[in-house]
């Protein structure tokens, strides 16, 4: 929200735009504590828009997929 980025929800989630708070409430998932992400800052992450990466498929963890960085917004 703070970076004004529209998120796509997981496959099967039809809520648009995707809202984390609503998703967490529907699924009873518990978010990772904020301090898990404190080490990554925009100053030590060298991703750039247009970079090509390999990303893990979130539904099948043993599958790698090609991905493209669309934007770098710093710490989200």
Strand order of the largest sheet: 1-2
The share of residues in extended strands comes to: 5-15%
Number of helices: 1
Please describe the biggest sheet, giving its number of strands, its sense, and whether it closes into a barrel: 2 strands, antiparallel
| Quaternary structure state of the chains depicted | single chain
GO biological process, one term: regulation of DNA-templated transcription
GO cellular component, one term: nucleus
MBT repeats: 18-76
Please explain how this structure is put together.
One of its GO terms (biological process) is regulation of DNA-templated transcription. This protein has about 80 residues and is of the alpha+beta class. The chain folds into two domains: about 1-30, no CATH class; about 40-75, no CATH class. It is about 10% helix and about 15% strand. It has one helix at about 20-25, and strands at about 50-55, 65-70. A two-stranded antiparallel ribbon has the order 1-2. The longest helix has 8 residues, at about 20-25. The chain starts with 19 loop residues before the first helix and ends in an 8-residue tail after the last strand. The mean pLDDT is about 80.
How are the SSEs ordered, and which strands pair?
Elements: H1 20-27, E1 52-56, E2 64-68
Antiparallel strand pairs: 1-2
Task: Characterize this entry briefly.
The chain has 76 residues and is an alpha+beta fold. 11% of the residues lie in helices and 13% in strands.
